Amino acid sequence: MLRSVYCVIPALAQLLIAAQAYATTISIETKPNVIFILADDLGYGDLGCYGQKLIHTPNLDRMSGEGMRFIQAYAGTTVCAPSRCSLMTGKHTGHTTIRGNRKDEIPLTAEEVALPQIFKSRGYTTALIGKWGVGENGTAGAPNQKGFDYFFGYLTQTAAHDYYPPLIWRNTEQIPLPENQQGQTKTYTHDLFMQEALQFVRANRNHPFFLYLPVTIPHANNELRAKGMQVPTNAPYKDAPWPDAEKNFAAMITRLDTGVGQILALLKQLNLDEKTLVIFTSDNGPHSEGGHKSDFFKSSGALRGMKRDLYEGGIRVPFIARWPGKIKAAQVSKQLVAFWDLLPTFAELVGESKPQKVDGVSILPALLANRPIEHPPLYWEFHEKGFVRAVRLGDWKGVRLSTTKPLELYYLATDIAETNNIAAEYPEVVHKIEDIIKREHIPNAIWPDDPSPSPP
């Protein structure tokens, strides 16, 4: 007994030292800048640092080497609007206002506290540059109604399909892009977004800022069908022995990577490197649209599924965090993190109380001290392929494809590709996951429990 007591004391001391180090880390910089870069339909396997062999992403690979790469990070769900709603509100899709993509897009409500409002309450200057998709102007969900001082980009999902639109929004004003009038296609909006982002950083270098940069790459222009991978040039893949759509897809990702490199270079030039947390991730899994096929570059990596699936390939996403001096370089984290964790994480980072009724938890200890936290079960639901639900409980993953089909069960620690359904062998785990599904789903009048199939 005495021996066991003496064994415990050093362990307790180590925990206290670790806690003290973590507390010191987060108190050094009370108001760090935050840049959150969100790719659109970028798969878990589309970056070199996540195993991609053919597409060049040197800047994101370097960002990973200089920071922390998460290998168990999850989007809000498997398509754009509800995933972004989850990110903005700290709620999973059993509780969010928006639970699927619709042409009559649903806005955030006036009562919902959005992520930029957390930063605004602490004196940050805030900007959204890119694709919004959770509230048009004139609604409670408009960007300038949800805490953004500055907005430049697309308001709706559908408008964001076109990389050469005739108009773009700046706050509540539509700005013509004359080069894109009368059939001309010269102004590529992704390049505009990167220029605006760099200008915003320069203009706000002397006070804390939050920049939300949800770019549209590599989403397809669905309306152009087989020619929907829009990009000014397919360099450096012009001579690759691939279909044109695949050359364009690869070129889009490398173009995004170049922009990330420009942002990181500017932070260093302005001496903001150690004052700025940069996070890069994607809103859901990879697409097979615009002539591109997700399996051409193995965009899901070793995972099963893609966009519109609740298997891992549809929701597990790349997630890289870089903050020199605060996040140690070349770390790989197994910490579970989902989009609804970002709001409470940023709230703790800037010293703000998180709103009530959020589902996320702060992962700041894992981010800054590589000290994993135990995460509550993860829950998703999706309303465009019937009524699909999924739960991650530890290493267990449950997927129910409809209200009439039995739960599928996978053990991700040994079956990351979700190939072996072992539900019949573990009825007690199935029962636990079914209880979670019942508990976490709150009915929503807009998103019925047993919907008819949505159009493609």
What CATH architecture of the largest domain would you give? 3-Layer(aba) Sandwich
Q: Describe the sheet with the most strands.
A: 10 strands, mixed
Q: What's the total number of strands?
A: 16
Radius of gyration using CA atoms only: 22 Å
- Structure class: alpha/beta
> What coarse outline follows from CA principal-axis ratios?
globular
At the fourth CATH level, what is the homologous superfamily of the largest domain? Alkaline Phosphatase, subunit A
N- to C-terminal distance? 66 Å
What is the N-to-C order of secondary-structure elements (H for helix, E for strand)?
HEHEEHHEEEEHEHEHEEEHHEEEEH
**Proportion of residues in β-strands:** 15-25%
Give a quick summary of the entry.
The protein has 456 residues and is an alpha/beta fold.
Would you mind describing this structure in some detail?
The structure is a single chain. The protein has 456 residues and is an alpha/beta fold. The chain has 2 domains: 31-374, 3-Layer(aba) Sandwich (Alkaline Phosphatase, subunit A), CATH 3.40.720; 380-440, Arylsulfatase, C-terminal domain, CATH 3.30.1120.10. The protein is 27% helix and 16% strand. Residues 1-25 and 452-456 have low confidence and may be disordered.
